[in-house]
Design goal:
The protein is an alpha/beta fold and 301 residues long. It contains 13 helices and 11 strands. The longest helix is centred in the first third of the chain and has 21 residues.
Length: 301
């Protein structure tokens, strides 16, 4: 017996808002499959409002309302049966974040969960990471966002330590990360990554996915520290405009990609990792899994 349902995840980040629609394929005697059906990304940079002025602007409030209404219609067209919307650091730190959440509920009929950094890290880490990691090795998982970055140490398939830091691409672009925050991160990585003979980094987020695509590497193959450093230097040698015209980067990617690389390279350097693996997973994938497993759990109780 084959069953295919559609679930949707909405990730309201500090740099962009994403709608992921996935097919949930269940067949007796086989493990459930999660297959991406559609992904829509709208570059509403909420963090640029919130981290500077502490509130979401009228213009971006309207854009969020329009986007969420459009997402609702897309979910209806796709016949999505369940959805979950999660907002991260920008919405969390905004003085009018709750007001925007209420407006979305009123205008689009969609509810939004504003989640903390630790919950965000837990949702991301609950994705199909086991598919991509060697169960006998040690990894530092780094998910770079616009407002924060989640770090998780995974040893032999188990999460050993996890923490969220307010070091994100949009914050860095606006020069809002102090040296103390970098030092705290360096100490945390040093403390939690020491004692392991060999450690690799796993990177997630739109920027590392783009870098991996540009590299031309096949899925499962890592990017070396040498490659990352070389590409970082290449990016810095171009102006913002040249990164759009010469390197073919989208305008909302051409600026944040450099601070994102700084975060990944720092994580690799401070952990002693020579390679970074890019499984192309993120918060939206984790949200889909959480909807499914919460449904299964409630049905078996």
């Amino acid at each position: 017996m084959l069953s295919i349902k559609k679930y949707a995840a909405i990730d309201i980040g500090s740099n962009a808002v994403r709608l992921l629609i996935s097919n949930i394929i269940e067949q007796e005697g086989r493990p459930v499959q999660f297959k991406k059906n559609s992904l829509v990304r709208v570059p509403i940079r909420l963090g640029a409002d919130v981290f500077i002025k502490n509130k979401i602007s009228k213009e971006n409030t309207k854009r969020i309302l329009d986007t969420m209404l459009a997402f609702k219609l897309l979910m209806k067209s796709h016949k999505v049966v369940k959805y979950k919307a999660c907002a991260t650091s920008a919405m969390r730190e905004s003085s009018n974040g709750q007001k925007v959440v209420d407006l979305v509920q009123e205008h689009a009929g969609l509810s939004i969960d504003v989640i903390g950094g630790e919950e965000e890290a837990a949702i991301i880490a609950a994705t199909d990471l086991n598919k991509y990691i060697d169960p006998i090795k040690t990894y530092l998982y780094v998910d770079v966002g616009g407002g924060s970055t989640e770090f998780t140490v995974i040893d032999q398939g188990n999460q050993v330590a996890s923490r969220s830091f307010k070091i994100g691409t949009v914050r860095l672009l606006n020069d809002m990360v102090k040296n103390e925050a970098w030092q705290e991160l360096r100490e945390w990585i040093g403390t939690n990554a020491q004692g392991y003979d060999k450690i690799s980094v796993i990177g997630s987020g739109g920027n590392i996915n783009k870098i991996f695509k540009i590299s031309g590497k096949s899925m499962g193959k890592p990017l070396s520290y040498f490659y990352m450093t070389s590409y970082y230097n290449t990016l810095q040698s171009y102006s913002y405009e040249e990164r759009i015209t010469e390197l073919d980067l989208n305008q909302d990617r051409a600026d944040v990609i450099i601070p994102a690389m700084r975060i990944y390279l720092s994580a690799m350097k401070w952990s002693g990792a020579k390679n970074i693996y890019v499984p192309k997973i993120g918060l939206a994938d984790g949200i889909i899994k959480s909807i499914y497993y919460d449904t299964v759990s409630s049905n078996t109780q």
